[in-house]
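Lecture 7 notes: from sequence to structure.

We start with a single chain of 160 residues. Read the sequence below before looking at the structure.
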Amino acid sequence: MPKIIPLFLIILAFAARPGLAQEWGSYHNPVYGAVADVPPGFEPVGPVTIEGAGQLFRDRSGALLSIYGAPIPNGDFSAFVTQTIAADVSLKTWPIGGQTITPDWAEFWGGRNGRTVRVRMEATCNGTLVIATRFEYSGLSSSTADRVERSLTAGPASAC
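Now the structure, written as tokens:
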């Protein structure tokens, strides 16, 4: 009996460690090459907009993460980002709190009613494609969104 109690305590200690039960995942879209980390607890719930564009993930709290790619019309990244921001403002009614647009990457963010949206976009394939993450959440730490944004990279893309 004395050997059973220490063994039980060791098993309990490992089971209680959050790092073992909740690990980050990763998603790669083979068409556009979008690669990004997926936080623990997020499950795939369907494709993003058009077939092959990306993946939508959701957690139990209702947070949404989209990892996707798309062609850039006329290779004009800045215009594409500006149109995306305008769509968020008009169609999704997100007030935009800030934005940074460069020739190769862009970020914009905003919030309403305690919910935050953060979007990061990067031009790839010589400016013909965009890869992006879009994170809508409430109650999650900003470090989770920071990691998702930092992890966005261009992987192999069949559309390139």
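The helical segments are 4-15, 18-21, 77-90, 142-151. Keep this in mind for problem set 3.
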